[in-house]
Amino acid sequence: MKALVFSRSPTRYAATRTLSVVSSRFNASVSPLDFTTNFELPNRNLPYQQCKVLLSGICGSDISMLDSSSSRYFEDFTSFPFVPGHEIVALAPNDDGTKRRVVIEPGLSCIVREISPLCDYCSVGATDKCINTISGSLNSGTQTGYCHSTGGGWSENFIAHPSQIHDLPESISNEAALMIEPLACAMHGVLRAKPKADSEVAVIGAGTVGQMTLAALFTLAPEAKVSALARYSNQAELASSFGASILRSNDELRRTARRKSKGIMVANRVMGGFDTTFDCVGTNETLSHALEITRPGGTVILSGLPSPMRIDLTPLWHKQISIVGTYAYGSEIYEDKTIRTFELAIQRANSLGLERFVSTIYPLEDFEEAINHARNSGRRGATKIAFDPASKVSHTPRKAS
Ligand SMILES: [Zn+2]
Ligand SMILES: [Zn+2]
């Protein structure tokens, strides 16, 4: 079957890293990613099920991995070669031979790995904190899309454990369902931050992570007052649909932070600032900016995979700011009930117009073009780029009315 396969190659890693510094184009000739038509999934018995991919997204973390610009931290939690793709809408088999539409929760925690007893985190539903992602009945891998045993979304089929499979209601389109994984990530971040009613919140970045954070704030913390930094006009338009005040530059966001908190400016630093700032980009520049605009005693939420960075933490120390990491999804306590983050995201999907965020869908064969599009999505007026292994040509999906 058709698949894009990622192999470890130190030579290619070095070449990709060098090229990604000098060019914003993905270069397939040195990339560790190869297109093949004769990929075979490793054999798996029940309860694992073979599912058929309908759509699989390209995440910012996939781009960092392909560009070799991300931290090498995860290499030891990954098994090579593997098929990338952790945002997956699929068809799962029923007992009677029919199939149903599902969205995949990609985390490969204790239950998925058939580990018993469960680790202390999984036993209370905190699968995002699982410590067993290199053991059990699967090869190493934190998620489907980083694990040799499961395959991933950038192919025709992959293998899933029943606990990873969430049924989709008829009312959620494939395109909207593709955004459920990034929405669940964002909801987990918002529920970790727990912004109080009337608190002032800033969101830096308006790509997929930023937009889904705005969506999560809109639906889970509607009384928070949200300011969003969006560099591109299409991003600004999408962000404003969630009721955020839109700022277009770091300077504008600084001035807003000062005005809202009745603070003062000391050079570029705001003494005062936002109660909570979400850094949805994770670079040296954005995290430094987040520390500038967050109030003394406030919180910075680090959403999305950060780049390796060197940063001056003096403002964190001086303003006694907390930086909180947020990774993936698990179980949440929301409105006094425990719920899987994915189920909460599925429940809210229809109220958020998620289809709007899927910009272009490519066949696997056109992976070079797709990855270049995803890499430059903000500049090119796009948000989410995805693969449909069954499609023959790239296309823009039908937008929500
Ligand atoms: Zn992702
Ligand atoms: Zn675990």
Automatic annotation (TrEMBL):
Alcohol dehydrogenase-like C-terminal domain boundaries: 209-336
Keywords: Oxidoreductase
EC number: 1.1.1.264
Top EC class of this enzyme: oxidoreductase
Keyword Transcription regulation: no
Molecular function (Gene Ontology), one example: L-idonate 5-dehydrogenase [NAD(P)+] activity
Domain of life, source organism: Bacteria
Gene3D superfamilies the UniProt entry points to: Medium-chain alcohol dehydrogenases, catalytic domain (3.90.180.10), NAD(P)-binding Rossmann-like Domain (3.40.50.720)
Record InterPro entries: ADH-like_C, ADH-like_N, GroES-like_sf, NAD(P)-bd_dom_sf, Zn_alcohol_dh
Domain Alcohol dehydrogenase-like N-terminal residue range list: 52-170
Cited PANTHER family: L-THREONINE 3-DEHYDROGENASE
Record protein name field: L-idonate 5-dehydrogenase (NAD(P)(+))
Gene designation: idnD
